[in-house]
Amino acid sequence: MMKLSQLLAGVSFVRRKASDPEVGGVEYDSRRVLPGSLFVAMHGGSTDGNRYISLAAKQGAVAVVTDSTAAFDDAARNLPQLALIEVTHGRKALAGLASNFFAHPQDQLGLSGVTGTNGKTTTAFLLDAMLNHVARKTVLVGTIEYHVAGRIRPSPHTTPESRDLFELFREGVTKGATEAVMEVSSHALEQGRVWGLKYDVAIFTNLTRDHLDFHGTMEKYRAAKQSLFDGRNGTPPRVAVINLDDESGREIARAAAMAGVEIYGYGLNSGTFRAGNVQMTAQGMRFTLRTPLGEASISTRLTGKVNVYNLLAASAAAIARGLSLNEVVAGAAVLDHVPGRFQTVDAQQPFAVVVDYAHTDDALKNLIALARELVATHDGRVITLFGCGGDRDRTKRSEMGRVAGKGSDLVVLTSDNPRSEDPLAIISDVLEGLEPTCTGFQVEPDRGAAIAAAIQAARSGDIVLLAGKGHEKMQVLKDRTIPFDDVQVAQRALAALGFNLVSEATR
Ligand SMILES: CC(=O)N[C@H]1[C@@H](OP(=O)(O)OP(=O)(O)OC[C@H]2O[C@@H](n3ccc(=O)[nH]c3=O)[C@H](O)[C@@H]2O)O[C@H](CO)[C@@H](O)[C@@H]1O[C@H](C)C(=O)N[C@@H](C)C(=O)N[C@H](CCC(=O)O)C(=O)O
Ligand SMILES: Nc1ncnc2c1ncn2[C@@H]1O[C@H](COP(=O)(O)OP(=O)(O)OP(=O)(O)O)[C@@H](O)[C@H]1O
Ligand SMILES: N[C@H](CCC[C@H](N)C(=O)O)C(=O)O
Ligand SMILES: [Mg+2]
């Protein structure tokens, strides 16, 4: 419990209807309001939290913070028992209130945030593994799941609302965590979900096409990412770990340097953290890591050029967090794979089946290029299965079709969370890019049947890429959400062909 006035410390507001109740919780969703809660009512893209103020009051809210002048006036008239505060930005206010409510757990954590179009989850997992390897307890927040000092929680969002983030941090600190590693999505930056958080280390992986449905243009998308580095998220980070091979990375580094941030640049061709002598197989990689602390040989079970970048980013961040080069090397060897990222499904079949989360044209292009490199030694073929998400960026659909068509020997075009859209309409958008570039493709909207078809088509030495859903366990359709797991479906398809798992065979 906390007095409303204490919760408001440092939170700027427009006006306040005086009264100072004890508050037992801070909620941004009326459905979670309990007796004694403070409800933060804010407008959104699909509804307006201000519509639910009277419902929240019925459920026992004692105070309401609103981003609406009209809602304030209305509640002042009709709900006289409520303490009221009007703010200009609901989520920024929420971040300040929640930080106060959970007693600033971030101050007791070394906080690292990863942003960029692709590679956030992988880089975060790598950094987390390095920190755990030197016995630092962590909170890990991202797309796949949340880890709170070893305990696993489901992840409803890559980057949760500030209130939920501070709750995770508080629980982590209570359980002995000293570090937090989190993915920071562009949605979160744009909306203010991480407003005011001071990062020790902010990491930029890359910027390529995605999320134009939300940001509108690449410039706005980049600006959202950049705000993690240049102080526009409230306060700039201490260190910025930035991919300097990426054009946007170079721009972001300039802006961060202007804001007084220390830059740790990385890349294959630029920066002070570099990789050389990369030797790559399907099972893993070795390369020389060059850093300002000296050189070391990295050995990892992750593979592919994109994972060289992810390892460079994680290594630089780990060094920024005080690890030695030896500790980085040891930590890099720990991770077997990141769930759903270049995860092989092995039932002793004579071809490879790989589940990967590539759901942008850049990721798909890189994935196919890696597969092409791996089959080139024995003249195998690349079979690529993918679809595009519904209610998401439409501009990437034909581009994904184009890169899949160009790089693959066979494409199986299917569905990937059509959400409210017609799966065939999404497929038709993809075909605009696929048809002109591809000699062999099949269309099968049912993802289960499509996976079976892709696997049936494989011959000895081929690689079957099942792209887009990675770790996901559900397929989101218009009228229902059904359990769906690419790894399991692939295992069943292999079993139907007489290939069976041996123990520990599935990585
Ligand atoms: C576009 C987007 O990010 N939307 C998120 C955002 O919605 P919004 O601001 O439009 O809010 P809204 O749904 O209109 O509701 C307005 C307010 O009313 C409240 N409300 C709503 C209903 C009710 O009965 N009572 C109530 O109080 C809501 O809690 C909210 O505070 O805030 C909501 C509450 O937290 C989220 O559920 C919602 O996520 C939607 C479902 C979503 O799909 N988001 C995705 C795109 C997303 O955020 N993805 C990124 C990662 C992307 C990537 O990995 O590349 C992420 O960080 O997860
Ligand atoms: N550094 C990278 N550069 C380009 N592509 C990458 C990189 N790392 C991973 N990928 C590709 O992108 C896919 C998603 O990777 P990952 O989950 O690490 O990224 P993410 O940024 O967290 O994605 P999301 O925003 O969807 O959660 C991988 O399966 C792989 O195909
Ligand atoms: N988290 C990202 C990736 C989703 C990947 C793909 N499976 C899809 O549903 O589009 C998003 O929500 O845009
Ligand atoms: Mg992610």
TrEMBL record:
Tagged with keyword ATP-binding: yes
EC numbers on record: 6.3.2.13
GO BP terms: cell division; cell wall organization; peptidoglycan biosynthetic process; regulation of cell shape
Positions of the Mur ligase C-terminal domain: 340-470
All residue ranges annotated as the Mur ligase N-terminal catalytic domain in the record: 23-101
Domain Mur ligase central: start-end pairs: 114-318
Reactions it catalyzes: UDP-N-acetyl-alpha-D-muramoyl-L-alanyl-D-glutamate + meso-2,6-diaminopimelate + ATP = UDP-N-acetyl-alpha-D-muramoyl-L-alanyl-gamma-D-glutamyl-meso-2,6-diaminopimelate + ADP + phosphate + H(+)
Molecular function in Gene Ontology: ATP binding; magnesium ion binding; UDP-N-acetylmuramoylalanyl-D-glutamate-2,6-diaminopimelate ligase activity
Intracellular or extracellular location(s): Cytoplasm
Cleavable signal peptide: none
A Pfam family matched in the record: Mur_ligase
Family of this protein: Belongs to the MurCDEF family. MurE subfamily.
Descriptive protein name: UDP-N-acetylmuramoyl-L-alanyl-D-glutamate--2,6-diaminopimelate ligase
Species, as recorded: Acidisarcina polymorpha
